[in-house]
Design a protein that fits this description.
Protein name: Phage tail protein
Number of helices: 3
Helix content: under 10%
Largest sheet: 9 strands, antiparallel
Shape: globular
Length: 341
């Protein structure tokens, strides 16, 4: 909210802005708390839509507390380069490659999201904590969205690995639907150290995994990895386990559009029985890359039937990209993620 003009030679542009109090959810671009909009067109029912890589800056009263920031990002049929120009054909959005986007705050990479546009809105959630020492005196919290090919601190090996597989200018048309600021539950509160398992959709909804975005209640429990990519993000305490091991379970399933004939080719008779069972073969993890550090040391990967299990340390110090392949005619899927302390 704005207060009275500054005394002296003030103009209508010289107004003191009171930082917003936490907790607060900002779901529109007209709020006074949104003080900076770089390459961001302010919205009414959403915070705004990016023209290209840029940032949004919010004035927040942190009062020396650790803050938890939750950002909801989305793409839709309008999410294409040049969307703000009237002659742009937004019908091409559904045909594009997935976007791989860095989300930074206060100059540091926090998480990455992989978003695939289509006929329906796809959303991803980003969750991170800001420590008191990261908050400037003026209370301005900046949230940046950068294409994976832009900015410093991204591994050249990772950029080479995804070249041609992800959309160029991936932030074009990206929406910020909402931003929530709250006191982090990790501040002054013990985090339970119990084993946790989330299904594919739950893993993505938590921000731990990003593999294309969620469309809502109709999403299945498993998550399709048609792009052959998934991101494993570092998460703040209480979102998922810290320390210990993450086990990512992957499966293979028949192409939904391949028809009865192709599905029959990847089914074989169960030995000693008259029924049928999937023998599509387990997906293969081809490469694991840290967004910041590039190739990681060989990690533990095991298979059983159609299932592949990949073990990662928890948490990683930066987002990690996993490249997955499967046999022709089948699609790799994310079944679940388990944290073991």
């Amino acid at each position: 909210m704005s207060t009275s003009p500054i005394a002296g030679t003030a103009t209508d542009f010289d107004r003191l802005v009171v930082p917003c109090e936490v907790p607060i959810e900002i779901a529109g671009g007209q709020t006074a708390a949104l003080q900076v909009a770089d390459q961001l067109h302010r919205g009414v029912q959403i915070v705004g839509r990016f023209e290209r890589s840029g940032l949004a800056g919010f004035k927040v009263a942190a009062a020396g507390r650790r803050l938890r920031v939750t950002v909801t990002l989305a793409v839709d049929a309008k999410s294409v380069p040049g969307w703000h120009e009237e002659e742009t054909d937004t019908a091409e959005a559904a045909k594009g490659l997935p976007r791989l986007i860095q989300v930074r705050s206060q100059g540091r990479l926090r998480q990455c999201v992989l978003l695939k546009a289509g006929s329906r809105i796809k959303r991803s959630v980003v969750v991170f904590d800001l420590l008191p020492e990261e908050m400037p005196d003026d209370g301005l919290i900046c949230i940046e969205a950068l294409d994976i090919m832009e900015g410093r601190g991204v591994s050249g090996a990772l950029r080479e690995a995804v070249a041609g597989s992800v959309m160029e200018d991936g932030v074009a048309g990206l929406r910020i639907d909402s931003v929530t600021f709250a006191v982090s539950p990790a501040e002054g509160q013990a985090i339970a150290a119990a084993r946790q398992t989330w299904n594919g959709a739950g893993s993505e909804d938590s921000s731990l995994i990003s593999c294309g975005g969620l469309t809502g209640r109709r999403d299945r429990e498993s998550r399709s990895l048609r792009s052959g990519l998934l991101v494993v993000n570092p998460t703040p305490p209480g979102v998922f386990g810290s320390g210990g091991t993450l086990t990512v379970r992957l499966d293979s399933r028949a192409e939904a559009t391949s028809g009865r004939r192709v599905r029959a080719l990847i089914r074989k008779a169960r030995p000693g029985g008259s029924g049928w069972t999937f023998r599509a073969g387990a997906p293969t993890v081809q490469q694991v890359l840290s967004v910041q550090d590039g190739d990681l040391a060989p990690l533990i990967q095991s298979t059983s039937g159609n299932i592949t299990e990949l073990e990662l340390p928890a948490p990683m110090n930066a987002p990690v990209l996993v490249l997955v392949t499967a046999k022709q005619g089948v699609v790799p899927t994310l079944l679940s993620t388990t944290w073991t302390p």
